[in-house]
Write a structure and sequence with these properties.
Pathway: Pyrimidine metabolism; UMP biosynthesis via de novo pathway; (S)-dihydroorotate from bicarbonate: step 3/3. This protein is α/β, with parallel strands linked by helices. Helices cover about 30% and strands about 25% of the residues. Strands 1, 2, 3, 4, 5, 16, 17, 18 and 19 form a nine-stranded mixed beta sheet that branches. Strands 6-7-8-9-10-13-14-15 form an eight-stranded parallel beta sheet. The protein has a two-stranded parallel ribbon with strand order 11-12.
């Protein structure tokens, strides 16, 4: 049946839209965008006071399926995605078994379709078992729908291996995404190396441990011509390298997470809050300020959550024993709205670029626009909804958010995936 979304404020820089209009959806596609649309027999949904944008994409999530379903499943992860306003996600390969074959890629896509709450675009691993020793079956994975390659969770330690991975990435025209962590330098580092790690008596994870691999991988991207995406970038110096690579004309992109933007190592002092134990670690306030600068000058391409669900008991352990990672899908949009858009640091159009347009470009998946003839992948949010992050609001199986207790303004209310509602009025559909 046809559906008319009425009176929302549409923001889509790709379609040069910034104003109130109606959207007519027919057969999963956008049939018309205009003022005062009427259509015989169509269902009408009034969205006065809300904003309507192209569906959000998170190109860095961990859904733990197959093998680690006690933390998250593709179904619960997909529901968390819809709840946060996302239509598409790129899942990381550090499942059990590791996603290093076409069969695992196909499994994840199929489970995603069964769950029906968001589109899953799997990333395959660069090396078998994330061990860094043998290159993965990249061709097999591409044939089965892998959109990117990464050993996320670990850095690829050997430069020669990374070169081979990028040679193949170039051949398949797929982006290689890099979790930058030199294991020799980082060792058992727990939090950013500096005054706070010293004061807390925790082993340091130095900025250089990340920057060395950023520099190395940019050099290999230049050597091979493979598109390179730096994952969860956290340091001012690392960002500068990306800035210079872009100025040189290399196809190098990067992402930042809300937690690296809005939290710092100081939040660990002296809470020892294991929900704030993330890889790479929360850095200094100066680093966070540099990341924001990178957003403003275009060095940062996109916001990702690095949604990393863990069971409560795992995070309840001693700091050194707790796993790295925090969830993010259900707080990301609200954090960006509250801390950046509402404060006038960026506008809605920039947010759409960071969370919807650029992620699709980086993954080389079809662009989506609020314009006739496009798939109806749509996120609607209420910019004025005020709410508090509490453990009971999550659709995710996990509640290891670093933002518990935060008071946020703005929240996704409705999501359409190819015209099918996955969330209505803040409630994920069944
Ligand atoms: N970010 C994290 O702290 N953890 C991720 C791995 C990763 O993204 O490197 C995880 O899989 O839990
Ligand atoms: Zn990572
Ligand atoms: Zn990750």
């Amino acid at each position: 049946m046809a559906l008319i979304l009425k009176n929302a404020h549409i923001v889509d820089p790709a379609a040069q839209l910034d104003g109130v209009a109606d959207v007519l959806i027919e057969g999963g596609m956008i049939a018309k965008v205009a003022e005062n649309i009427e259509a015989e027999g169509a269902e009408v949904r009034d969205l006065t006071g809300k904003y309507l944008i192209p569906g959000l994409v998170d190109l860095h999530v961990h859904f733990r399926d197959p093998g680690l379903e006690y933390k998250e499943t593709i179904e619960t992860g997909s529901r968390a995605a819809a709840h946060g306003g996302f239509t598409d996600v790129c899942t990381m390969a550090n499942t059990d078994p590791i996603c290093d074959t076409g069969a695992t890629v196909a499994y994840q896509i199929a489970r995603g379709e069964e769950a029906g709450k968001c589109r899953i675009h799997p990333a395959g691993s660069c090396t078998k078992g994330l061990k860094g020793e043998i290159i993965s079956e990249m061709g097999d994975m591409v044939a089965n729908g892998a959109v990117a390659f990464t050993d996320d969770g670990r850095g690829v330690q050997d430069a020669g291996m990374m070169r081979r991975v990028m040679d193949y990435g170039k051949m398949f025209d797929k982006v290689v995404m890099s979790h930058c962590q030199d294991e020799g330098l980082v060792g058992d580092g727990q939090i950013n190396e500096g005054a706070v790690s010293t004061r807390l008596g925790l082993l340091g994870w130095p900025a250089a441990g990340e920057e060395i691999q950023i520099g190395r991988d940019i050099a290999i991207a230049e050597l091979t011509g493979c598109p390179l995406h730096i994952q969860h970038i956290t340091t001012a110096a690392g960002l500068d390298m990306v800035r210079r690579a872009k100025a040189k004309g290399l196809e190098v992109t990067c992402e930042v997470t809300p937690h690296h933007l809005f939290l710092s190592e100081e939040d660990l002092d002296v809470t020892y809050d294991t929900n704030l134990k993330v890889n790479p670690p929360l850095r200094t306030k100066e680093d966070s300020a540099a990341l924001l600068e990178g957003i403003l000058d275009g060095t940062v391409d996109c916001i990702v959550t690095d949604h990393a669900p863990h069971a409560a008991w795992e995070k309840a352990r001693e700091f050194e024993l707790a796993p790295f990672g925090m969830t993010g899908l259900e707080t990301s949009l609200a954090l960006i709205l509250t801390n950046l858009v509402d404060k006038g640091v960026i506008d809605y159009a920039k947010m759409v670029e960071l969370m919807s347009i650029r992620p699709r470009e980086i993954l080389r998946i079809a662009p989506v626009s609020i314009a006739e003839g496009n798939v109806a992948d749509i996120t609607v949010f209420d910019p004025n909804a005020e709410w508090t992050v509490t453990e009971d609001i999550f659709e995710s199986k996990a509640a290891n958010s670093g933002f518990l207790g935060a008071q946020l303004k703005g929240r996704a209310t409705d999501v359409y995936l190819a015209g099918v509602p996955t969330m209505v009025d803040g409630v994920v559909t069944d």
